[in-house]
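User: I've been going back and forth on whether these two constructs are worth ordering. Before I decide, could you fold them both?

Assistant: Sure. I'll take them in the order you sent them. The first construct and its structure tokens:
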Amino acid sequence: MSDPHFLPLVGAPPPERRDAARNRELLLDAAKKLVERCGARSVTMDAVAAAAGVGKGTVFRRFTSREGLMAAVLNHSETEWQALVMGGPAPLGPGAEPWDRLLAFGRSRLDTTLLHAELIREAGRSGGRARGAYSFAATHVRYLLTQLGVTGDIALLAVALLAPLELPIDEPETLDDFPAERVFEGWVDLARRIAGR
């Protein structure tokens, strides 16, 4: 039941019922554990329902499709990563010099992409790297570039810096030719050129 002292905003979605919120967390936790144990490609709606102890219909009502469920799991991990960028320990989080933060960001983003590459692909159109997650990363890179005194088209330079970090998603077969260390070293070279270091 909602708090009678606070009125909902016009156009805002209705508040989530307590049992619905509990089911959502239960399903996300079950899906996350299955993804970690079996890989995203192997996770089915039936398996998530069984692991969460609910009916398959509950999973479909909550997430609409398997892609929607994978997107929700991905969104959960993106939210955790964003919290580290915004308030975690330096150098990824605040408190380090902008250049050190940029390097930590690049390494962390590439590692996160590699860790979740299959999940990102399985989320398909429902998730991919959701627009909000990409927007957060681009905004953070623009902020760091500005802190470094970079001039020019900062928005375009941020896109150029983010592109190599997404390589394992867009072109998974290229990982044989471009292993993670090569991608990161190339990314650092690009970042140095952009930042004039």
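The second construct, handled the same way:
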Amino acid sequence: MIHTLTELLVASVALGIPILLASSAEVVSERAGVLNMSVEAMMLTGCFTSVLVAATTGSVIVGTLAGATAGLVVGALQSLLSVTLRADQIVTGIALNTLALAGTTFGARLLLSRDTIAPGFDRVAVPLLSDVPVVGPAVFNLPALAYVLAPLLVLLALATSRRTGWGLAIDAVGEDATRADWAGIAVRRIRHLVVLLVGVASGLAGSYLALAQVHTFADNMTAGIGYLAVVAVIAARWKPALVAVVALVFGVAQALQFTLPVLGVDLPVAFLVMLPYVLALAAVAGFVTRSAGPSALTVPFVRPGH
């Protein structure tokens, strides 16, 4: 039983980390009024590009940076459409997801083979702590990239805290962009920056999924993880501190797909696959009615007189 619980927690953390990476940036973007449904596209292009570049160059570091850059490119396109051109944020996000799915599938057929294996990140065990029963193998025996990204997430949370000037400016833009503009806050600049931030973070999440987990690329390998990252923000009621908890819960829901059959729980495969998304719907239904999001979320900013 202890062995099974350990395996469940290990899988939950592994599957929850990509969601946490993307949702930690997405919550900042939504606080500034921009909803990025294209997180899935950013992650998927990050997966494909990181594997392609890592397999070509033999460098996992170069592959990771390439994945982050690919996510940044998708983020720049989302920023152009939603902030500059003021297109519908939900429609453009879904369109980019569809484009990324088709593009990476075609690219894999063209540039990768089924036996393409990219170099990946080895697991690094923290002495003593990794030997702690159940928790140790899951939290203190992670791929090297996780130990690099963890402090970056902490810095992101601190920099965008409501106790900082930038954090207050982000919230002001997300609540009332017009009044924020009157106060001298560069509304469009902030919104561009936060969307680009989501692009980089989601690209890194895709790189982590590909290079730290499976070391290869498969069609639609994100399989809706990007959407779960967006839902995690809503379920966490736009509170950065709760995002990590929700991301881990979604990781557990995904891990149960593999753990329940081992425990002898006889459930249809289709139900196990859709379990994370059923949980996501339940989370949104339970939390969204209790907490209003930023007032200007999804509302394009138009300067009066322009």
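Notes on the second construct follow. The chain has one domain: 2-287. The mean pLDDT is 88.
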